Queue: 3 jobs
Job 1
Amino acid sequence: MASSLVTRQMPEFKIDAYDPKIGKYTIVSSDEYKGKWTAICFYPGDFTFV
Amino acid sequence: MNAASHTFKELGVELLVVSCDTKFSHKRFVETEPLLDGFKLMMGADNTGKMATDFGVYLEDEGVAIRGRFLVNPEGIVLAQEVLTPPVGRNGNEFIRQIEAFQHVAATGEVCPANWRPGKKTLPVNTDAEKMTGRVGDYITLEEILS
């Protein structure tokens, strides 16, 4: 496991997702963020604070 | 992070929040937590922990992700990361400051010294590196940095 990703390419991903904007389940992948400024925030779990 | 989502939008930053819960849990969470009233951010469900592992924030024993946040530029390079253990939440304002600084650097090539925020002094572009080595104080004062 890398201790820091800074200066490296963001790891690729493709995972299930929930989009509260439209209230629907979907899938998100790293491809969708190509060419965009992106912030990814991990949190320990639902029903904790984000 | 949700409270700051308007600012992220203004800065043109896509925001994705991720935990190792299921998408069903995400939906339920948004529907029941009063603080998430009006929550609009895409919620990734990394059930297997693979994404969190690849980002270096997976706690295998507990099956959860620690509070890691990553800023990625349009070229897909990670410019900044911050990782906190679960009991302490993040400071959205500091993250926004960093985004503004990185976007300023990307747009101008200028360098943002400590405490920089929009409107504050930057260090010049294309300065002879040797000239500035150990002489940064010729370009910016401590008062200017701390102001």
Note: The first strand of chain A starts at residue 14 and ends at 19.
Job 2
Amino acid sequence: MEPREEVVRADQLNKTYGSGHTAVRALRGASLVAHRGELVALLGPSGSGKSTLLTALGLLNLPEKGRIALAGQDVVVNGIAHGDLPSLRRSRIGFVFQKSNLIPFLTAQENVRVAFKINGQDGVGELRRSQELLDALGVGERSDHYPEQLSGGEQQRVAIARALAMAPPLILADEPTSALDSHRGREVMDLFKRVAHEHGAAIIVVTHDQRTLDLFDTVFEMEDGILAPARSAA
Amino acid sequence: MNLAWKDVRRQKGRFALTAFGLGLLFAIVLAMGGIYRGLIEDATLLVDRMGADLWVVQRDTRGPFAERSTVPADLEDRLRVVPGVAETRRFSSAIIQRNHHNHSLRMNLVGLAWPWDRGEGLPLAEGRTLAQAHLEMIVDRSLGLALGERVHLGNDDYTVVGITKGLLGSGGDGVVCVNEADASAILAYQPSEALRLEREARVSRLAHTELDSPANEERLRGDEGILPALAPPPTNAILVKLIPGARVEAVQRTLAGWVEVTATSTEEQRQFLLQGVVEKSKRQIGLFRALLGVVSGIIVALIVFNMTAAKAHDIALLKLMGAKTGVVVGLILEQSMMLGGLGYAFAFVIAELSFQYWPRRVVVGFPEFAGVAVLVTVITLISSLAGIHRALKIPPTLVLAG
């Protein structure tokens, strides 16, 4: 069996907010690895540090200590960036949020195209690719609609299409189904599983929804900044 | 895909209204320049139109426009024999304000030297020049009078026979041209009671002189023309036209020896007006323009800042996705330029449609339009810095805050 390609590795991440007696240790030596095609869940109560870990992996909120590597290459070591982080986010990381966070003045298709545009690609090919992604996610017919004209589930599909636009090896999703009913929530998680397997992306999802855990390859639990594997199906 | 345009497209009504407001502001900046140019043109229009080579006025004055000047009527005949002089004519000019059909009519009254000057040199738009010795007038269109309309001036009714376009005095008042004798009559006209009081005053003054005698007192109580020294000044200036080839400086040197007059060239008259009449207005308008420029800059900066603040979440999202600084800066800058550009377009339309109806003449041409275009560009660019500064400070993690 071939070793699976490592997409992201976090080693001993530590992050503290505030100082003195008001200091809050959000991450205490958190470590994880995600591979291509792997769907990873991060569980835990509110304030346990899940979102802090996600923003650290998204190179938005750097930990004071520890190491983050993308595709085997160190990009953050002890709070110091090694490389152009915005560029790495553009090309290697896709984001999906609790709210779809679509740009309200762009249509569904334009919201996908914007991911290409910020990478300096804005031609006919990108237009076609945007439509293909929307078609693949089942919202192709809604491509000319603005976010306010889409349902919550449709908005989330468009957001996933946008996250997939640059075919990033890593997708980070922060409670993407919390604003959806259970049926729509499961549909979105199904979609993530399909995307992970078909696109070969590592997808790390922060979720509270225990009913969809069967879809995940790996599940981590987090409490008081400490990350521990709960189950692995890999 | 242009993000700035996409954003504008979704809120085009609000954007257009904002741009219209800016357009009004830019139109005022434009108007200030136009009013200044109009002031200059108005101030020098009469001097240019009269077609004189020399203006002979009261000694050591800068008359007849910049200050009061009075010269004797017979000066016209004496000047005619000066070497180099081809023709001379009397010129009088005064601002008068009269009631006409229950509204105030303020005009610059100019006397034409009938019969040599009937107004042929005036920019006639309708009607004709003066055709009879008395009681006809040529008026500027800005006064709102119609051909054939009769206006009561002095003790007589004058009929409008010609209408000029753009013939204004140095103060921006429409010019009314009548025969020189009519002008003198209009200016000298006093009601009976005023004449009676003046005669009494003369007699009173006489009593304090060694000329006091019953005979002189009788003369003073009669028509003022009996004592020419007491008569009102007959004219403000004599306009001199030189024979072809004659040098202005040579004639001026000759007239320098005449103790009662000063001879100025048309160019000197223009400079008197520009330095005297227009200079303060120029500085005032310049100050207004500078202040308006600053106010426009502050307003544009506030608008751009607020537009950026309203998009903070979207900008954070773009940054989170890894957008380069240039994408965010471009979004703000392009939108600022669109706002400035649309505002300028509104200002252009406002200028084209409304400036002709403003009370004072507003002369705008390519230099004014180009100047304001440059000003708008600079204001917009500088003002967008406030928005750009705000945008660059937005953290990408703002998206995660919900």
Note: Chain B touches chain A at residues 1, 3, 6-7, 9-11, 313-314, 317-324, 327, 396-397, 399-400, 402 (CB under 8 Å).
Job 3
Amino acid sequence: MNQPILAVHQLNKSFGAKQVLHDISFACQRGHVIGLVGANGAGKTTLMKAILGLTTATGQISIDGQSTSFDHHEVLHEVGALIEYPSIYPFMSGRDHLKLFAKGPRRHQRIEQTIAELHLAKYIDRPAKGYSLGMKQKLGIALAILNDPKLVILDEPMNGLDPQANKELRELIISKRQAGTTFLISSHILGELQRIADDLLIIDHGKIVKQTTMADLLAASSHQLILSTSNDVKARKVLTKAGYQLTEDPKPTIQVGAETKLEPILDVLSQQQVTVLDVQHHDADLEDSVLKLLDHNQLQKEG
Amino acid sequence: MRTLLWQEAFKLLKKKSTYWVTIFLIISGLGQAFLEKLYPHNKVLTAPMAFSSSFGATTWLIFIMIAACATVLSMEFQYGTVKEIIYQQYSRSTILISKWLVMLGYSIYLYVMTGAVALLGKVLFVNDQFSLTAIDPYSNHLTFLQQWLASMSSSFMTLWLVLSVVFLFATLFRSATMAVTAGIVAFFAFNAVSVLMFKLITKFNWVKWNPFNFLNFSNQITDPARHTLTQLSDTQLLIGSLGYTALFLAIGLFSFRKQSV
């Protein structure tokens, strides 16, 4: 079963004269969490809407090996989603929403299981019109996972969630992923995404500018050694002379590779009577890496 | 389709207004029948006349069904729930048709319910004023019962002609306000412009085929003299009403199938 759960090939979408998706192609492997990252207006939601048959687009989309489109999307019974904001009927309770959209056998058990997994029991029987943003968001996520879909598409699922709910959602996604569910998640909260995503799609101005694994992206990003010494000014001079690449930081901060050894650095400084008091490692996180990538892409365009 | 029908029925039954409408129509129907008992000699609205419109229910039903059909689609756009519905496995056509069918079922329920209330009101309050099997002197020699049934079924056809316009506007503009306005204008403004329309028909015979003329179907059934104004037979009005209803629904369906959300 190596067939990707979702495959998108040369997807294009325009609103009038403005093209918002340009030849988007990617595949999502089963049981992975794929983070979709990009600035506002980059085309993330439009891409998700095209996959879900909500908006027209040209190109090929297949889910679980079956082709799907705006007009014919029977295969979407394998998909759960939360797009833009949770859609709630104000005249119904949360439980009514779950009853409304639950399908197939064992409906009742799945409703109860979903309520337990997302900790909704306290308010699930109250009218949804009185729900806070976070409660609505959790109900929207509950609806997305309710029917045990193979693919779950979540657009900014952490919106409005408190830290506890965020943690619960992260744990839920991880446990569902282990059970084989694939997630395509767009989020601006890159710290959260860094903790759950296996793969990344970085989209800018409607184009995929990077498709990689989280591990590869972080490994390729910069690592720094930040030194505290008895004489920082002298230490900077010594290290520069020794050929190390320093940042502009007044503290001696060395740009190093992932596998750099500390001993030669300490040696060169001690030979010049500079004592090293402390060494801190700083690895670039997803936010740094993505911003750098998007900056680089912008510069290339302008160049 | 079964799932969609179930979902639409579930939503309808979860709305409190669905129950209030039933309670209101029962009270209104029985109330008007009771008023006929209190004022048996009034000439403005005699008991048989009031009974022929199920004690006023057929007019209320138009308002109620216009509101119900306008909101059944536009609420999905207003609440954003249209996305939840579309990214199920069903096609847009099936989604819209299931809404039509549930509204059709709802309108049939309301007609049957108000009909039952009218019969109850007749038996309870005005049973001594006329007999259902007596001939209505103002109709085509029909009994009051036949007259009542003909009036109900023809007003049902006219109602659905109006509702097809409501569905069309709800689809095109995604707004309940626009759809309700279209329905109200289609039905009530028609009465205001009908004099002008009948004059035009006498001058240009082909004007009789315009959709507004077909709103006369139920009027013509209860008042056969209207034939001279509409220039169409009852059968032509029936077929035309069905045709225009199908046409407006089809345009709405075509538009909905193309809509991105």
Note: Chain B has one domain: 2-258.
